Amino acid sequence: MDISAGRIMATFLVTCILACYVFVIYRLMTRKSFYSKGFNVSLAALSVITAAIILAMQSNLVISLGMVGALSIVRFRTAIKDPMDLVFLFWSISIGIICGAGLFEVALLTCLVVTALVLVLENIPSSRAPMMLVVNLSDTESEADVLDIVKKFSRFYKVKSRNISGDAMDMVVEVRVKEEGAFAKEVSALPKVQSVSLISHDGEVTF
């Protein structure tokens, strides 16, 4: 099938516009501490390359078979650590495929729907992640005093571990507190408490 120069130019123009859109959205929505500009640029370039491959496959049967054979032996060894990176990667490839097929309206609608979906789901509030209270006690009898303060600040708690060495004890308690500073200070004010650590993590909870 012969593809006109106008069709080729229109395909690349729309693909570049939508690829730049994905570039901007990824930059705005990424949650990484260290933003990878190289990966973002590769997303935009991937859309254009994929559109070119689809156009070439449509123009000649021999080329299409050659492309299938060539792509089947390509191995990608780059590890995708963030699931959102995988979403943007497939999004970029799909733009190239759809634009290469000439379905520009579908490509535009896909961009709008994916953006809206990601924004809505990203802004759904999640449950507050629990914190770990690590307390070093010089006297095992002071555990009850620590738990009394824990009950005062947290409705739900769970003792994760107790490590007893002679008269001293180390305990770890899972808590959910809002007044973190006041909670830690009150626990540390107990006479038999040697040290207090209130540890949080960056993980997400689903409950």
According to DSSP, the number of beta strands is: 4
Count of separate DSSP helical elements: 7
CA radius of gyration is 28 Å
Q: Stretches where pLDDT falls below 50 for ≥5 residues?
A: none
Helix content: 55-70%
The geometry reads as rod-shaped
SSE sequence, one letter per element: HHHHHEHEEHE
What is the strand arrangement across the widest sheet?
A: 2-3-1-4
Describe the structure.
This protein has 207 residues and is an alpha+beta fold. The chain is built from 7 helices and 4 strands, in the order H-H-H-H-H-E-H-E-E-H-E. The chain has helices at 5-29, 37-59, 61-72, 83-100, 104-122, 143-153, 180-188, and strands at 131-137, 157-165, 168-175, 193-199. A 4-stranded antiparallel sheet has the order 2-3-1-4, with helices on one face. Helix 1 packs antiparallel against helix 4 and helix 4 runs antiparallel to helix 5. The model has no long low-confidence stretch (mean pLDDT 80).
